[in-house]
């Protein structure tokens, strides 16, 4: 028999596939139970924005046609929102697509890319898939002022001649930890101009406007800065797969050369163009998240479970023992959370913030299992 794994390029042979959250339909099949809630993939409990739903319906009749490969309307709306030129925007099939494009465009086997321990699992996959070296830097400890976050001085020290990319998620997934403006800005300033800093802001919208660290405001200052954003979280469009990055036009031009010509589908383009104008929905998403986060954090406090203070739409909870039996018990009670042993956190589960009703149920289950 042919060994196809051996035929794969060396980087691909070594990488571990991404493990997604368990779908509701799978748990229904496995346990034959109904009324399941999924708090495993940091999705929006409100569903898509109503403006996006309207736009999707209007776009349905155009489905025989290819999408606008340049995504003009969406880029125009994004350019207005961010106050930048359309030439600075690259659209992606989710921001995941943009992360992969960055690795494909800027890394080859003689290069390395740096990222933090306990950060988004797609970074090492994207880096290894193109045969480059992935440099994982130990995260800060649980006792740090910001537990399980990026150790920026250590990341800086790891930069060498071969470094092309640095991936930083702020806020970070799966920990929820976040970097303050001063330390992040000082770090970006200290990075050589020919090393691209990718600031992944998938969860930016969940921090209050006053607390928000918005890297897009620094784009004029740093030509080596790339900001990635998504419509999957606060805008409730995860199923559509649409995200983007902001960068200087030269970087956007490079990414544009290798992206699939129609990498964002027409319904996603229409939905995102409408969603970006739906301020009311965004405000509601943030409010529901803040309320749910409070409920879950209070429940963890009551049970003596430590967690990482989070500025995302999820909480990383430490059960101080192997979390898999707890995960399993919760599944049997119809609640899907996310194990993070694959991130090196076997005692933790990541719990997405759902609707108020879902969080009431989550906290009841948590108290049942851990109380
Ligand atoms: C930190 C981070 N970045 C990027 C993504 C990718 O999101 P999407 O491809 O849905 O835009 C995720 C998804 O969970 C994430 O957690």
From TrEMBL:
Stretches of the chain forming a coiled coil according to its record: none
Reactions catalysed, as given in the entry: L-histidinol phosphate + 2-oxoglutarate = 3-(imidazol-4-yl)-2-oxopropyl phosphate + L-glutamate
Record-level GO BP terms: L-histidine biosynthetic process
Enzyme class: transferase
Aminotransferase class I/classII large domain sequence ranges: 35-362
Keyword Transferase included in the entry's annotation: yes
Pathway note: Amino-acid biosynthesis; L-histidine biosynthesis; L-histidine from 5-phospho-alpha-D-ribose 1-diphosphate: step 7/9
A Pfam family reported for this protein in Swiss-Prot or TrEMBL: Aminotran_1_2
Modified residues (N6-(pyridoxal phosphate)lysine): 233
Xref: Gene3D superfamilies: Aspartate Aminotransferase, domain 1, Type I PLP-dependent aspartate aminotransferase-like (Major domain)
Listed GO MF terms: histidinol-phosphate transaminase activity; pyridoxal phosphate binding
Keywords noted in UniProt: Amino-acid biosynthesis, Aminotransferase, Histidine biosynthesis, Pyridoxal phosphate, Transferase
InterPro entries found in the cross-reference section: Aminotrans_II_pyridoxalP_BS, Aminotransferase_I/II_large, HisP_aminotrans, HistidinolP_aminotransfase, PyrdxlP-dep_Trfase, PyrdxlP-dep_Trfase_major, PyrdxlP-dep_Trfase_small
Residues spanning the signal sequence: none
Top-rank taxon, per record: Bacteria
EC number: 2.6.1.9
Needed co-factor(s): pyridoxal 5'-phosphate
PANTHER family: HISTIDINOL-PHOSPHATE AMINOTRANSFERASE, HISTIDINOL-PHOSPHATE AMINOTRANSFERASE 2
Family that this chain belongs to: Belongs to the class-II pyridoxal-phosphate-dependent aminotransferase family. Histidinol-phosphate aminotransferase subfamily.
Subunit structure: Homodimer.
HAMAP family for this protein: HisC_aminotrans_2
NCBIfam families assigned to the protein according to its UniProt record, in alphabetical order: hisC
Name of this protein: Histidinol-phosphate aminotransferase
Organism: Marinicella litoralis
């Amino acid at each position: 028999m042919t060994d196809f794994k051996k035929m794969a390029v060396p980087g691909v042979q070594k990488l571990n596939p991404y493990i997604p959250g368990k779908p509701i339909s799978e748990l229904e099949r496995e346990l034959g139970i109904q009324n399941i809630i999924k708090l495993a993939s940091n999705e929006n409990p409100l569903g898509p924005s109503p403006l996006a739903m309207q736009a999707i319906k209007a776009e349905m009749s155009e489905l025989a046609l290819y999408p606008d490969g340049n995504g003009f309307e969406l880029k125009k709306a994004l350019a207005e929102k961010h106050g930048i030129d359309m030439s600075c925007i690259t659209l992606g099939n989710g921001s995941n697509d943009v992360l992969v494009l960055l690795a494909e465009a800027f890394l080859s086997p003689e290069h390395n890319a740096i990222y933090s321990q306990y950060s988004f699992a797609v970074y090492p996959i994207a880096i290894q898939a193109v045969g480059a070296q992935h440099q994982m830097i130990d995260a800060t400890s649980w006792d740090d002022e910001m537990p399980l976050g990026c150790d920026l001085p250590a990341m800086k020290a790891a930069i060498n001649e071969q470094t092309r990319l640095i991936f930083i998620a702020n806020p970070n997934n799966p920990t929820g930890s976040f970097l303050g403006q001063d330390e992040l800005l000082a770090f970006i300033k200290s990075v050589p101009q020919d090393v691209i800093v990718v600031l992944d802001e998938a969860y930016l919208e969940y921090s209050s406007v006053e607390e928000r660290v918005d890297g897009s405001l620094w784009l004029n200052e740093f030509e080596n800065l790339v900001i990635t954003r998504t419509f999957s979280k606060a805008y409730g469009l995860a199923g559509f797969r649409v995200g983007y990055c902001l960068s200087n036009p030269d970087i956007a031009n490079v990414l544009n050369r290798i992206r699939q010509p129609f990498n964002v589908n027409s319904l996603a383009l229409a939905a995102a163009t409408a969603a970006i104008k739906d301020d009311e929905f965004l405000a509601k998403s943030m409010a529901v998240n803040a309320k749910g986060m409070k409920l879950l954090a209070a429940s963890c406090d009551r049970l003596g479970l430590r967690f990482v203070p989070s500025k995302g739409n999820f909480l990383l909870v430490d059960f101080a023992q192997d979390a898999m039996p707890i995960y399993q018990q919760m599944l049997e009670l119809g609640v899907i959370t996310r194990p993070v042993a694959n991130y090196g956190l076997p005692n933790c589960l990541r719990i997405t913030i759902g609707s108020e009703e879902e969080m009431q149920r989550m906290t009841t289950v948590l108290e049942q299992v851990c109380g």
